[in-house]
Amino acid sequence: MTTPFHIETGRLTVPVTAEDHVRGDAGAPVTLVEYGDYQCPYCGAAYPIVEELLRVRSGRVRLVFRNFPLTDVHPHAAAAAEFAESAPAGRFWDAHDWLFTHQDRLDPDSLAAAAAALDPSGSMAQAMDRRVHADRIRHDFLGGVRSGVNGTPTFFVDGRRHDDDYALATLTAAVDAAARTSG
Questions:
Q1: Cα(138)–Cα(142) distance, integer angstroms
Q2: Is the pLDDT of residue 9 over 70?
Q3: Mean pLDDT in residue range 144-156
Q4: Residue 114 has pLDDT above 50, yes or no
């Protein structure tokens, strides 16, 4: 017997927890959740915009990144997600940033070289080879599907899907509106 698979469009169905990767002030009044694919050119275009948003709204917004690798169209997306998740403790965001600033180098040899540079001990490469984080990546992906994500990047501002563009002015306005309603 299978469990019913409920899709909630417009709302984030998997709440943010301590298990999520969070960048920014943990006490920020607004949470921006991004479902992304490291090989997606649109996610690559959104990356500097989100970084600038975090800078201009420092203390007011925090970012949560969740994996949504679109493996049918991006053959290196799953390996890239595994790379980020396999980063040594406290280095997820370094791996995340490397992936988005080197989208043209997501092939296996380039990821192996980058993993060796990020973690000379070799434990990152071993974790990547064994796909240690495949369940977490799948969990992120299924949470996105349940929330109505069907492409990348998809953003949620305080749990509500952001269906507008991801230009800096648009995201900033969405964050400011959420901050006004949160308190």
A1: 6
A2: no
A3: 96
A4: yes
CATH of 24-182, one of 2.60.40.10, 3.20.20.150, 3.40.30.10, 1.10.10.10: 3.40.30.10
119: number of Cβ within 10 Å: 20
Domain boundaries, the chain: 24-182
Residue 68 three-state SS: coil
Phi, then psi, of 43 in degrees rounded to 5? -65, -40
Q: Using one digit for the tens of pLDDT, what is the confidence trace for 30-54?
A: 999 999 999 999 999 999 999 999 9
Beta carbons within 8 Å of 63's beta carbon, 6+ residues apart: 22, 23, 24, 31, 32, 33, 34, 50, 54
CB distance 142 to 105 below 8 Å: no
Asked if 37 and 77 touch (Cβ cutoff 8 Å), the reply is yes
Per the listing, tokens 């305080």 go with: 158
Supply 100's token pair: 């988005």
Residues ≥6 apart with Cβ < 8 Å to 68? 35, 36, 37, 140, 141, 144, 149, 152, 154
51, burial (CB in 10 Å: exposed 0-12, middle 13-18, buried 19+): middle
